[in-house]
Every structure is written in structure tokens, then in C-alpha cells.
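note to self: dont lose this again. the chain is below, predicted strucutre after it. 307 aa total, dont forget to put it in the shared folder this time
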Amino acid sequence: MPPPSHREHDDAPPPLPARDPAGHKGTFGTVAVIGGQATAPRMMVGGPALAARSALRAGCGLAVLAMPEPILAAALEIVPEATGVPLPCRADGSIDASRSAQVIDEHLSNATVLAIGPGFGAGAPQQQVVMRLVAREGAPLVIDADALNSLAEVERFDLDFRAKAILTPHPGEYARLAARLGIEADPVDPGRRIDAATALSRRLGAIVLLKGANTIVTDGLRSWAASIVNPALATAGSGDVLTGIVASFAAQFHRSGMLDLFDCARLAVQAHGAAAGAWSERHGSAGLLAHELCDLLPEAIERMRRR
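---
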């Protein structure tokens, strides 16, 4: 089968919009992060906390962590600037899907953007929550990590995919999604990555941000490859940080009509790379910690605005 045709978008992303000097927290949007896992053998707290921290560092007004109740307090200690919504759990710590869906509907209905997946696990309850969110129209979704793996476990999940969304797979997550959908594409070969991302974008009607050296962003018609190659980003949690930046930029600039989701994603990739580049200038190519990447974002983003 020939690769899908697409139009490469070689232009640089647009300037990052100026920040409203009279703005308030509501002006800059609310990012809700749904993630975390409270069950053994792998309890996961850091991923959603990093996503919330990076969302705030990238400029959104408010961040909300929706996590399994047993681990929510630990996450809020990591990022006390966020607020928390506990997801009801069963006796073994797994989330109760139906009750959690009710909580999400009740407490996150006003969120500007939902980021789902960091550290979420990929069991049946998570699949139910993820499928419920992607099947409805509403606030944009940033779908990452275990939310992507949950989708890949559902037969023909594309038939119920209606959300306005940005998917952020690394090559392994992409391969699982593509296999489920019968897409034959190579997310690793530099000469074929754009075609791979484009095929998934067109199937789902969503933005695809295919991570890796020279990250690809596509909306199925326009495609862009970042000129960013930095081995320091090969570190735990860097993808969660990117998820938070993408969600933050969408919350700030998409609802107001300043940018479309394609450009929000491209600018987020640039900010992520610029922060990592600033760290590497001081420290080298290894040893970057994800929370350090978060804390370099304000300076990196301000430099982007000044350019």
C-alpha cells in the first residue's frame, strides 16, 4: 500500500502569543490531569504530578490532579500548587470505573483541557474511563502514555473516537496503536515517520505528536518535524512534562482562538526542547531530571516570546 499523501509544513511555528497583562487564573485556562496508579506491583505517582507541574510552569492558570484516592495526597505534596480530585477505588486500589466517570463528569466538567494517561496503568477500568472520554465531544484531550496503551487494547477503538484530541505516542506506543488499527507504518525510520504519523492522524481525525529525535507533529494534512535532537531527553518523566506543556498551551491559546491545536503542539515541542537545551548547555547530555526540565520552562518560554 502506498504511503498516504500529505503536505509537509516546513514553516516555523507561529510566534508564541503574548500573555495578557490584565489576565487572571481563569484567563489562562485549567488543565486537568487524569492518571496515576495505586495498585501493586507498580504504584505510579510521579507522572501525573510532573504533567501538572509542567502545565503550570508553561503558564496555565490552574491545574487539577484526578488520581486514585490512595495516592492523591502524595502527588499533591510533589505539586502543592495543584488541586486534587480523588478517583474512587476498589479494595485492591484499582479505580472504580463507573464511580470515577461520575467524579470526572462532576468535578472536571469546567476544565479547559484534559490530559489523560501519565502513570495511569492499562487495565480494564482504565480502558473504560479512556474510551468514555474519547467517545464524546467537549474539552480537548491530550492522550498520552497508558491512555494510549488502553486504546490499543480495544478492538476498533477508532469507531468510537469523537474527541478533539492530541495523541503523543513514542514509537512503541505508536506501534501498538497502529497494529490494532491495521496501519502498516514505520515510526522509527527517519524517512517514514511523517507518513506513519499522518496515517494515524487521518484515521482518528486527531493531531498526532510522534515523539523521538526530530519529533513529528501532524494534523493529517500539515506535517512538521522538529529540529531537536537531545539525548538528555531520554530520561524518565520527560514525556509527562511534554504532555503538560501541550495541555497548557492548548488551555491558554486554543480556547481563545489564538492558535489551533496543531500549532499548540508544535510550540510545546519547541518549548520542551528549548528547556532541555538550556539544561544541556550547563550539564551535558545525560542526567537530566524531569522536574528540572519543568523548572526551566518559564525561562525557555520567555525567550520564545522575545524572539
